[in-house]
Amino acid sequence: QVQLVESGGGSVQPGGSLRLSCAASGYTYSSYCLGWFRQVPGKEHEGVAFIDSDGRRSYANSVKGRFTISQDNAKNTLYLQLSSLEPEDSDMYYCAGGQRCSTWHYWGQGTQITVSS
Question: Residues 46, 39: contact at Cβ < 8 Å?
């Protein structure tokens, strides 16, 4: 059974930084895609950053140059480093996993980020 558990959210001032972690267990696929999404209530999930089993990364235009996705395979953990945060980045952030970057089978419970002064 695959489980994804996010941590690292919180409140930060504009311009600040945070690092989100997503601990994965039970994930045994040799080919996979992992990603971070965010969602404001009443809106659809927005894909923020993705990384696949070949190490290829992609980002939403709105976060390019500010967010960095990475993974530590030894720790089975996915990370999202968020920098230069803006109030518009305030959202619930979720990690997700699937065998391809177009199909998401597993989701974490989410972690909230609030950016305000």
Answer: yes
How many CA atoms, within 13 angstroms, populate the side-chain half-sphere of residue 18?
Answer: 21
Residues 6+ away with beta carbon under 8 Å from 64: none
The structure tokens 């989100």 sit at 20
- The pair of structure tokens assigned to 105 is 């089978």
For residue 50, the tally of other CB atoms under 10 A from its CB is 20
- Which residues, including other chains, have CB under 8 Å from residue 55's CB and lie 6 or more apart? none
Most confident of 11-15, 37-41, 73-77: 11-15
Query: Rounded distance, CA 59 to CA 68, Å?
Result: 8
Q: What are the tens digits of pLDDT across the range 34-64? A: 999 998 778 888 999 999 999 999 999 999 9
Q: Which residues contact 61 (CB under 8 A, 6 or more apart)?
A: none
DSSP state of 74: G
Q: Are 17 and 9 in contact (CB under 8 A)?
A: no
Place of tokens 């980002």: 59
